[in-house]
Amino acid sequence: MKGRSLIGATLALLACSLLLAACGSSGGGSSSSKSAGQTKGAKAVDPASIKNAKGNITYCAGKDTSGDLIEGIKNYNKKYAGQGLKVTLKEFPEAADEQRTQFIQRQRAKSGECDGFESDVIWTAEFASQKWLVDMSKYIDARKSEFVPSTLQSVTFDGKRWGSPRATDAGFLYYRTDAIKTPPTTWQQAYSEAKSSNPRGIAYQGGAYEGLTVHFLELAFAAGGKVISPDGKKSVFNSPQNLSALKFMVGGIKSGAAPKANTTYMEEPARRVFEAGKVAMMRNWPYAYALDQQAKAIKGKFKVEPLPAWQGGGKAGILGGHNMVISTYSKNPGATLKFIDYMTSAPVMKRNAVKYSKSPTLNATYDDAAVKKAIPFAPQLKQAVAQAQSRPVSPVYSLISEAIYKNVNAALSGSVTPEAAIKKADGQITKAIATF
Amino acid sequence: MEAASATGSVRAPARSKGIGEKKLAKLMLAPSMILIALVAAYPILYAVWLSMHDYSLVHPGLSRFDVFGNYKDALSSGEFWAAVRTTFIFTAVSVTLELVIGLAMAMAMHAAFRGQGVLRTVVLVPWAVLTVVTAFMWQGIFQSPLGLVPSVLDSIHVGQNIVWLGQKPYALIVLIVADTWKTAPFMALLLLAGLQVIPKDLYEAGKVDGASAWQRFVKITLPLLRPAILVALIFRTLDALRIFDLPFVLTKGAQGTTTLSLIAQQQLQNNGLIGLGSALSVLTFLIVMTVSLLYIRFVGGNIKAMTED
User: Of A20, A287, B112, B302, which one has the fewest beta carbons inside 10 Å?
Assistant: First the structure.
C-alpha cells in the first residue's frame, strides 16, 4: 500500500463522518422575517362547515401500533361513503422525533399533503406559533364542557385552540400494598415511607432524557415552580420552588429513599425493577399496570394512585397524549374537522378505551360502566389526568427540556450541587428562548 | 481510495507515452471522480456552508450568514471541550486495549491446531453484531441492580454502591468495555492477515540461532507486523473518534460520555440547530482529519519505505 492511497482511504472514511451533518436539513430558509410567535391572522375553521363537508382528506399520524386509528378510519369511511367523504391514513415512522420532522418538512414546503395530523401534546404550540395550524377555537369552545379541562390546556396557545385532544396520559404512583401500609398523600411522605419500607425505595425515570424532565416537573409544578413566564419570553426556572424540588430529589438519592440507579432509568428499567420486587414504589405511566399484573413477584400486591401532593404545595402531573390538528395548507378543513369530530366523539372514545386501553379525553367516558370494567383504574386515571399540566408551551421546547434533564441528571448523580444545576439550566433556557 | 491510487499511477505511463494517454486517463477517471464529488465532497462542502449560517429548524425563514458565529458558540462552550476530552480518552484507551487483545487473538488464531477454522469464525461474531444491538446488550449487563455485573458483584459483596451507567467514571468504562468487546476481533482479523505473510523460515532461522519465543516475537513478529498494525490502528482510531451509537444507547451522553458526534447529532436533530450542529460536525471532521494526517505523516511514510524495501 502506498502512502497516497492511505490518504485516499482516510478521506473516504472522513467523508462518512460528515454525512450526518447533511441530513436533517433541507433547502435554505425563505426570506420572511422573524416572527414573534404571534398567531395573528391564522386561518380559522367554522364548525358549521362540518355539515356540508365533502371530499377526500389525508390524515397523517405516526405508525398506528395499537390499531385504533386504523379501525376508526375504516368505520368512518364505511359510515360516510354515501355522503362523498373519505379519509386516507398516511403513516409516519413510529419514532416521535421522526413524525415531527416529517410534518415540519411538509409544512415548510407549504404542502397540502396532510390535511390533518396527529400531534403530540408538546408540539401543538410550536406548530401553532409557526402558523401551520388552523384555529379551531369555535369548534372546541362549543364542546368545552365535554373535555377534561387539563387536556384542553395542551391545545391552547396564544389564547386560541389549535386542536382536539384524542388521547391523553398521566403518571401514576405505583406502590406495593404489602410494603406500604397507608398510601402516601404527599411526596415527602412517599419518600420517608420508601426509605424504611421492605423492599426499599422508589423507582422513577431519572436518566438524561425527556422522561426526567417530565418527572422533575411533576415535583416542581406541585411545589409551585414554573419554567417560563406566561408570555413565554423569559426563563423563571431559577426559583426557590424548583430548587426545593431538586433538593428533595437529590436528598432522596442520598438518604436511600430512591436508589442511585434511578439516574440511569427510563420507563422500562424502572418497570423491571418494580416487577422484580426490588422497590416499594414506582413512578410510571398507566401502561405498566397491565404488565405489572403479570409479574409473579408483585401480582395482586400493588395499587396505583394519582401522583401525591407536595407538602405545603399542591398536586400536579405532566400531561402526555395526542391532539388532532388541521394543517393550514389543507384544501378541505371542513371535511378534516368532520373526521376529527368523529374520532373525538363519545362512542369512538369509549371504544378506544375499552378495546385499546387509550386514555380518553372526555369526562363522560371515564364514568362509563364498560370503561370502568375494562380499565380497573379508571377513577384514578381521571384524577391523574385532571391534576396534570402541560409541559412548558414554547416553540423551543426541545431545547428547554434538554436544559432541564441534563442538569437535573447531573445533580442527581452528585456531580454538581442542586443550586448550580438550577442556575445552569436557567441560563440555558434563557439562551434557548433567545434563539427564537 | 480508488481515485487517489489511480491518480498516483497516472504519472508513470504519462511520462513514457505522451499527452494523449494522460487525457484518456482523466476521462476514464471522470465518472468515479464525479461520483465521489457527489457522495463525499458535496455533503462536506454543504455542511461547511451550513455551519456559516445562523440557521435553525425551529425558526423557518431565519437563515443569516454569519461566518464564525457558530464556531464561536461551539468553541466557547464547555460542552464541546468536555466532548473532545471524552472522545480522546475513549479513543486512546479503547484502541490500545483493542490492539493488545486483538494481537493476542491473532497470535492464537495463527497457531496451527485442530478447529482453527471454527475458532476464527467464532471470534468474529462480536464484530458482526450490530453496534446498537451490542449497546443494548451491554446496557442489560450493566443495568443496576438487575444486570449481570451488578448482581454478581452484589453476591460477592463488592462494589455494591456503584451504578455502572450512572456514575463517573464507570459509565465511560462500560463504553470502553463494550467497544473493545466489539472491535477487538476486527483488529485481530487485520493482524492475522499480517501474520500470515511473515515467512516461516525467519522463525526457523531464529530458532536455530537460539532466540527465545519472546525474542522471536519482539525481533521478528512485531517489526514485520508493523504495516498491518499501522493500518489497523488508523482504521480503529478514525472509527473511535467518530463513536456515536454506543453512548447514544448506553447513556444518552450522561456522566461524561458525551462524544463529539453525539453533541453534533443532538444539536442537529433534537434541537434543529442546523448551523451550530454543522459547525460541530465540521470541527469533528477537522479533528479527525488532523489525527489521520499525523498518522500518515509519521507512520504512512514508514509503510511506504518498508514496502518498497
Answer: B112
pLDDT digits (tens, 9 = 90+) for B260-308: 999 999 888 777 788 999 999 999 999 999 998 888 787 766 655 655 5
Record the cell numbers describing residue B134, joined without a space.
451490542
Question: Which residues of chain B are within 8 Å of residue A32 when distances are taken between CB atoms?
Answer: 60-61
Whats the size of chain A, residue-wise?
436
Nearest to A15 among B44, B235, B301 (CB): B44
C-alpha A302, offset from chain centre: 25
Closest CA to B183 of B136, B132, B146, B129: B129
Cβ separation B307–A2 shorter than 8 A:
yes
Whether residue A184 is preceded by a cis peptide bond, meaning omega within 30 degrees of 0, is: no
Name the pTM for this structure.
0.80
Name the B residues in 216-235 with CB < 8 Å from any A CB. Answer: 227, 231, 234-235
Amino acid at position B146, single letter = L
Residue B16, classified by CB atoms within 10 Å of its CB into exposed (0-12), middle (13-18) or buried (19+), is exposed
**CA dihedral defined by A67, A70, A73, A79, rounded to 10 degrees?**
-70
**What DSSP character marks residue B270?**
I
The C-alpha atoms of residue B271 and residue A97 are separated, in whole angstroms, by 10
Q: Which residues of B touch A29 (CB under 8 A)?
A: 55, 60-63
Nearest alpha carbon to residue A206 among A276, A279, A277, A153: A279
Q: Which of B43, B163, B274 sits opposite A263 (nearest CB)?
A: B163
CA atoms in the 13 A half-sphere facing the CB of A80: 23
Closest partner residue to B144 (CB to CB) among A18, A130, A264 is A264
Taking an 8 Å cut-off on Cβ atoms, the answer to whether A20 and B270 are in contact is no
Q: Which three-class secondary structure string do you get for B39-52?
A: HHHHHHHHHHHHHC
Per the DSSP assignment, residues forming a β-bridge with A186 are A309
Q: Is-contact A184 A193, C-beta < 8 A?
A: yes
Peptide bond into B227 cis (omega under 30): no
Q: Which of B144, B162, B164 best tests the A interface by mutation, with the highest count of A CBs <10 A?
A: B144
Q: Report CA Rg, chain A.
A: 23
Query: CB distance B61–A33 less than 8 Å?
Result: yes
Residue B10: per-residue pLDDT = 47
The 8-class DSSP code of residue A282 comes to: E
CB contact under 8 A, B281 and A20: yes
**A35:B61 CB<8 A:** yes
Cα dihedral value A321, B264, B255, B128, nearest 10: 90
Of chain B residues 31-70, which have a CB less than 8 A from chain A? 39-44, 46-47, 50-51, 55-63
Residue of chain A whose alpha carbon sits nearest to that of B299: A3
**Structure-block grid coordinates of residue A399:** 431545547
Strand partners, A325: A117
* Predicted pLDDT of residue A94: 79
C-alpha cell at A23: 441530513
Q: Which residues of A touch B293 (CB under 8 A)?
A: 10
Tens-place pLDDT, residues A293-346: 888 999 999 999 999 999 999 999 999 999 999 999 999 999 999 999 999 999
Query: Under a CB-based contact definition with an 8 Å cutoff, are residues A174 and A267 in contact?
Result: no
Separation of alpha carbons B282 and B290, rounded Å: 12
Residue of B11, B59, B64 best to disrupt the A interface, most CBs of A under 10 A: B59
A319-326 and A160-161 strand pairing: unpaired
**Phi and psi based region of residue B159 (left: phi greater than 0; alpha: psi -120 to 50; beta: remaining):** left
